[in-house]
Structures are given as structure tokens and as C-alpha cells.
Amino acid sequence: MIGAIVGDYVGSAYEFNNTHDYDFEIITLESSITDDSIMTIAVMDAVLQDKPYGDRLWYWGNKYPNPKGAYGGSFAAWLRNKNPQPYNSFGNGSAMRVSAIGWAFDTLGKTLQEAQKSAECTHNHPEGIKGAQAVASAIYHVRNGKSKERLKQYIEKEFGYNLSRKLSDIRPNYRFNESCMQTVPEAIICYLESSGFEDAICLAVSLGGDSDTIACITGSIAEADPACAMPAQVMDAAFSTMPAELQKIVKQFYSKFNLYSYGRF
Predict the structure, then answer these.
(1) For residue 176, which phi and psi values (nearest 5 degrees)?
(2) The pTM is what?
(3) Which of 9, 111, 138, 221 could form an S-S bond across to 191 if both were Cys, CB 3.0 to 4.6 Å?
């Protein structure tokens, strides 16, 4: 979704050049969408066409084989395989690409089921599936009006993530980590502590670590909160780095699910 794409775009400049400064430059010459956005759009396309998630991930990954940030080694090998099989990953790729599922389905049960399907074509480790389900269900609950405190309680109970930590305590010792276990809960905490969309993204990037993916996940959840208006300038900047055919899929998805009322275009 656009919140994920914007988070990816903003975080991209700091993925390998971490900052702990909250007042960093939002739009830089280094800012661009990465594999996170391409795979997010691939999941959108799978939903739109009612095709297997693995089919669309493989198609778009091979259409854009060298995005900024590059694909992880195991996923890159999966893309090169003519008959790709899941490889038991618990990496955060399953969580960063799942946001469309949080919007597309009308029940929590279906959301969880589809999140699992979107993950397990590659990330069939229980933690990889859990990361995708946690993010998709968070989006589902936020767009349906669940408060931050109730969301925190739900995620802690259902997925076992510790969301009671404070970013001020996490930040000093947080390091680059591509696992769901050390990315997804931190990204959710960024949303929980935020006062708006831009604040959520700034908190995510200033945490350090895998900045584009943390901000991608945080942005995907924050977008679902009606109180979190996205800055038009940043959204336009992110879209300007996207090929037209990928922009088209995003717009088709928002049209199909009548999401224009959220004022994202």
C-alpha cells in the first residue's frame, strides 16, 4: 500500500547509512523505492488478479531484478529458479510485502489465511508466517477502528511480541537485523508511539537497523489510521521513482477496494 511504499522510499537513504537523528532529511538524492515496494505491489497484483502470490512475486521480481537495496540472497536464488520452492525463511520480507492483504479482505480469519499464503510461498518458517500475519492483522484492526492500546493487547496475546518496550530503550542498542522477530515488533512499536504518519516514519527510520523495511512496515500500519494523514509531497516524491506500470497497479487496487476516500491520491 502507499503507506508501505512511502516508508520504503524514506527509509531507503538510511538503510546502509543509519541515523538515530529524528530530524533527518526526509527526501534526499538517495531516496528511492526498493525491493520492498516492488514486492508490496506484487502482492497487490496477486489480489487483483486472484493469482497465486508466488506467481506474482516471481514475475515482478524477475521483471525488476536489480532494485535499489537488492533482494536477499535466498530470495534472489528463488527468483532464478524456474520451479521455485519455499526455503524456510523467517526474514522480514514476508512482513514488508503483506500490507494489501490487510485491506483486501472483510474478516480477520480471511486476512490471516491470506497473509499465511502470501508468506509461505517463500517464508514458510513459522516466524516468517507469523510476521506477515501480525502486520496484516494490525492493518485490518486499525482500519476497523481498533485503538492502539487494544491493538497492542491483541498482537501481544496472539503473536507473542513484546510491545511494552519503549523506542528510547530499544534505539541505543538496536542493530541491523533482517528477521521478522527483530523487525516486526519494533515497527509496530513505532506506530504505537507515533502521533501521526510522518512522525511514525521518522521514529522508524531513527531507530536504525533495516531502515527501509522497518519504515515500510510502520507506514503500512499508520496508513490505516484515519488520523495519520500522509504528506502529499513525500507521497508524490515516492511515486515519481516508480515505473508507470507499477503505479497503475497501485491505482487499480485503490479503485477496486474503494480506498480513495482515505485521500491517498
Answers:
(1) -60, 125
(2) 0.97
(3) 221
* SS3 per residue for the chain: CHHHHHHHHHHHCCCCCCCCCCCCCCCCCCCCCEHHHHHHHHHHHHHHHCCCHHHHHHHHHHHCCCCECCCCHHHHHHHHCCCCCCCCCCECHHHHCCHHHHHHCCCHHHHHHHHHHHHHCCCCCHHHHHHHHHHHHHHHHHHCCCCHHHHHHHHHHHHCCCCCCCHHHHHHHCCCCCECCCCHHHHHHHHHHCCCHHHHHHHHHHCCCCHHHHHHHHHHHHCCCCCCCCCHHHHHHHHHCCCHHHHHHHHHHHHHCCCHHHCCC
pLDDT tens for each residue of 165-207 = 999 999 999 999 999 999 999 999 999 999 999 999 999 999 9
pLDDT tens for 93-116 read 999 999 999 999 999 999 999 999
In this predicted structure, what is the pLDDT of residue 138? 98
Say how far residue 60 (Cα) sits from the centre of its chain.
Answer: 17
What local confidence, expressed as pLDDT, does residue 69 receive? Answer: 77
Taking only the tens place, the pLDDT of each residue in 29-51 is 999 999 999 999 999 999 999 99
Separation between Cα atoms, residue 39 and residue 101, nearest integer Å: 13
What the chain holds in terms of domains, given with CATH numbers, is: 2-18+31-253 (1.10.4080.10)
